[in-house]
Amino acid sequence: MEIKLSVKNLDAYYGKNKVLKNISIDVPKNKVVAIIGPSGCGKSTFIRCLNRMHEVVGGTINGSILLDNEDLTKTDPVLLRKRVGMVFQKPNPFPSMSIFNNVAAGLRLNGVRNKKQITPIVEKCLKQAALWEEVKNNLNDSGANISGGQQQRLCIARTLAVSPEIILMDEPASALDPISTTKIEDLIFELKKDYTIVIVTHNMQQAARVSDYTAFFYVGELIEYSDTKKMFTSPDKQQTEDYIRGKFG
Amino acid sequence: MNSKFFFYKKKITSFIMMSLTFVAALAAIIPLVLIFYYTISKGITYLNLDFFLAMPKPVGESGGGMANAIVGTLILIGLGGLIGVPVGIMTGTYLSEFGNNKFAYAVRFLTDVLSGIPSIVVGVVAYTMVVVPMKHFSALAGGIALGILMIPTITRTTEEMIKLVPHSLREAGLALGIPKWKTTLAIVLRTAWKGIATGVLLGLSRAAGETAPLLFTALGNRFWSTSIGQPIASLTVYIYDYARAPFEDWNQQAWTAALVLILLISVLSLLFRIITRSKYKTN
User: Fold this and answer.
1) What is the CATH number of the domain that holds A230?
2) Residues belonging to chain A with any Cβ–Cβ distance to chain B shorter than 8 Å
3) What pLDDT, in 10s, does the model give residues A44-59?
């Protein structure tokens, strides 16, 4: 099994406050890794380290994160973020842009100007994000005038357009209704054929449904990381079991 | 019984307070209504094509227009805009996007101070800086004075409007591998564009209505001039001169000039609305 992303002894800080302690995780290629844990355990911080968005809000890290054996803490963050895309908790389409332009934004603003080149990519990404059928006749409408679930799939399409290798998802369905959630989950299942996915979720059923591997974080520490089936049936640690059974968190 | 008493007491208090706010709201629009009433009823007499196309007539002759002053006002706010709009928008962007430091706090404070400085003082400064070295009054000096006056309005509106853009949009841009400067330009400024345009409009309108700083910078001109190196006519200075003149028809024309100034600002505002209309369908 090929390892796509390898996190080694990662510490993360906000100022002097240490929010992640010595995290080591290997993410295999074309798999879905779910990060679970109670609020404030460092899940979001963890995935924001993977595309170096953590430093945008003034955070710092220690340790190494290897993407295809190349230490991404030493590369240029702008180039890195084209390889590691991110879908956020709340759908955040660009309201000043049309649906089409939302998907094209990453390409255009990275220098691709040729419309002949952009149009097929936009169509492909909207299809991949299972949104094409719903919006193909109103591609020029505002990206903010569609439903929340559609907006989130638009954001996924936008992320796909810059052809990342890894997609990070920070609770992508937590602001959505159950039907939209199911659509996003189906989508994750499809997407892992082409991409490697790391998803943060509050919802343990969701982790069990969509992921191949699950990591359980608690107050900044990685308590347990294993195969999702094993995690949800016979976890090694008592703490994991308590959390999964709903005894705390 | 007691609770019923309190219920009615609350209802009555609520009604009285609501009536008071309504009266206050009425009082607030009365000056505006009066302004419109007087400028229109008094200014309409001379409002004809001649007023826009003809030059002022010499003392004693009736009729004539203020073509030079209308063009002069446009040139002056254009010159002011050339200075005030880019400086204001860029300063506002800096304050909002990169302004988490001592320098920015100082700039923010000084911009507020600048907005409180009387416009006549700005005129004096422009006089000393431009008119004195050039040795004569000029449209340029007037434009610079107006430009300085626009800066605080445009800066603060830009900053406030950009701050309203959700942080999540900046993150979305950065997460797509778009460099920060491009994210700021193509996503943040573009999202805030409408609000910024409102600030620009406010700045331009205020500048169009300024008289004091023009008195000893652009001075005024009874003749046709579009040269920025020469004194230039403006509607506000004409209003000032004509309103205090001892001639009945000049006083009338001052009203018309006021009406035209209001119309000019309304047209400007309408143009801005059209320009900043959202255009999703056109792509």
Assistant:
1) 3.40.50.300
2) 51, 53, 56, 78-82, 85-86, 88, 90, 92-98, 100-101, 105-106, 109-110, 140-142, 155, 158-159, 162
3) 999 999 999 999 888 9
Contacts of B53 (CB under 8 A, 6+ apart): B65, B67
Check if the beta carbon of residue B253 is closer than 8 Å to that of residue B242.
yes
pLDDT > 70: percent of chain A = 100
Q: Which domain holds residue A199?
A: 3-244
Closest residue of chain A to B169, computed from CA coordinates: A92
Nearest to A109 among B175, B186, B193 (CB): B186
* A93 vs B contacts (CB less than 8 Å): 172
Whether the CB-CB separation of B91 and B176 falls below 8 Å is answered with: no
In chain A, residues with a C-beta closer than 8 Å to the C-beta of B185 are none
Interface of B with A (CB under 8 A): 166, 168-169, 171-179, 182-183, 186-187, 190-191, 193, 278, 280-283
pLDDT (0 to 100) of residue B281: 45
CA distance B153 to B89: 10
pLDDT in tens, chain B (283 residues): 578 888 899 999 999 999 999 999 999 999 999 999 999 999 998 888 888 998 888 887 878 889 999 999 999 999 999 999 999 999 999 999 998 899 999 999 999 999 999 999 999 999 999 999 999 999 999 999 999 999 999 999 999 999 999 999 999 999 999 999 999 999 999 999 999 999 999 999 999 999 999 998 998 888 888 888 899 999 999 999 999 989 888 899 999 999 999 999 999 999 988 888 866 543 3
Contact check, Cβ <8 Å, B193/A78: no
**Which residue on chain B is closest to A97 by alpha carbon?**
B280
Question: What is this structure's pTM?
Answer: 0.85
**Do the Cβ atoms of A152 and A186 come closer than 8 Å?**
no
Q: For residue B220, what are its two tokens?
A: 């005024």
Half-sphere exposure of B126 (CA within 13 A, CB side): 27
Does residue A249 sit within a domain?
no
Assess if residue A84 is contained within a domain.
yes
> Which of A79, A88, A90, A94 best tests the B interface by mutation, with the highest count of B CBs <10 A?
A94
Partner residues linked to A222 by β-bridges: A217
Answer yes or no: do B172 and A162 touch at CB < 8 A.
Answer: no
Indicate which of A67, A109, A138 best probes the interface with B, i.e. most B CBs within 10 Å of its own CB: A109
Task: Tell me whether residue A158 is in a domain.
Answer: yes
Residue A123 lies in a domain: yes
The number of folded domains in chain A is 1
Query: Which alpha helices (DSSP H) does A51-147 contain, by range?
Result: 77-83, 99-108, 115-128, 132-135
